[in-house]
Amino acid sequence: xxxxxxxxxxxxxxxxxxxxxxxPDYLNRMAIGLVGEGSECFGFDxxxxxxxxxxxxxxxxxxxxxxxxxxxxxQLAYDSLPIEFAGLSxxxxxxxxxxxxxxxxxxxxxxxxxxxxxxxxxxxEWIEIRESELAACTNGKIFHDEFGEFTHFRNExxxxxxxxxxxxxxxxxxxxxxRAGQYNFMRSVYRNDIVAVNLAESxxxxxxxxxxxLINWRYMPYYKWMHRSLYSLPVLxxxxxxxxxxxxxxxxxxxxxxxxNRKSEIIETICGYFVEELxxxxxxxxxxSFLLDHSLEILKCIENxxxxxxxxxxxx
Length: 316
Hints:
By secondary structure, the chain is of the alpha+beta class. It has 14 helices and six strands. The strands form two sheets. The protein has a four-stranded mixed β-sheet, sandwiched between helices. Strands 3-4 form a two-stranded antiparallel ribbon. The longest helix is centred in the middle third of the chain and has 28 residues, at 163-190.
């Protein structure tokens, strides 16, 4: 049983009866589910996940007034729920993890991820929020939310970046991909700087995965889940998943130049797919194989001159 399903069953078996008994007037004002950090919130949990921050548990979100009225009392009732369910114990929190489950005030919960009690409205606010934080506060599953405050906040974030912000981030990723993968990767090889080679490849992979999410109108998760989550993207997801895996698995056997040339060929194949998709989505109309050229074309389409000139490179 994966953690998300386990949590929902635990809520229905123990949590909902507790709320109906002790807080009947508030149930229709609560949002209940499992969202946030943790592999189970992305559906990626496995046996290794079970050593900490995993197990039967859920979260309850209240509006500001309700949290002030019953937050502490509800947390005490939550803490009194059985610690075992389906043969599994309530999650053990690690020393370094924050409180991931329990009772929260809705806007304070979102502030932990996006830095504000309110939804971002200006491009400066959107551009400073890390993609992984947006992914974390919009993942998981809502089991119950009649009141709708939590789900409204969530859905507004899931509507994705404003058009100009998305264009800016796509242009930036194209720049990094071209600089790290199409330009500096082989230059570092010829300079025999193996550390620079590895860094260039790493930056290329990260920017490529980010671009894949951007062209799918989805937020890229924390680095540990970047590649794994790539597979589920409907646009280029499986192709890029396999190519990036192949790039990482290509090993040095005999001739070093042949080895790096094979890697460079994979990099160019990935870039070719991006060019096709940028053209298909009419983000760029040129046919150049060099993604820097597409970056410059996309920047021209950004209406806000301040955003167009803003330097966001290497911020994910």
